[in-house]
Amino acid sequence: MDEQEAVFMIERIYVKDISFESPNAPLSFVQTEAPTVDVGLNTASNVVEGMDGLTEVTLTVTVKAKAGESTYFAVEVQQSGLFRIQNIPEEHIPALIAVHCPTILFPYAREVVADMVGRGGFQPLHLHPVNFEALYQQAQVQQQNYTTQ
Description:
alpha+beta; Bacterial Protein-export protein SecB; 30% helix
């Protein structure tokens, strides 16, 4: 039996969707109250039909800065990548898609968020690094707890 070589390769990285809102500008520029910043992360993936071995993974980063009821800004970035995943054992693919792909995509999304916030007239916001492996393991434990209840 001829063993085929495992392939995990980045084919392309791109911004799929981007949104920036500053609904209270210019008043938000003169407010003195420090905003609270909420960051949300989500990943989604799908096998690309007709493109053998290609999987699109999208990391969505959502950032909202608010003080009380006043929104300073809201940013949403969908950073996507096309990854060639071939001859990888099925049991390894979920972790590859949930850990390794977002780890590759996050620095690009982080740069877009900082750029958008800066272009919106605010101090650039540099998001802290994210440990996607820890998030994946936490989700696995939660799912295991949910299915055993």
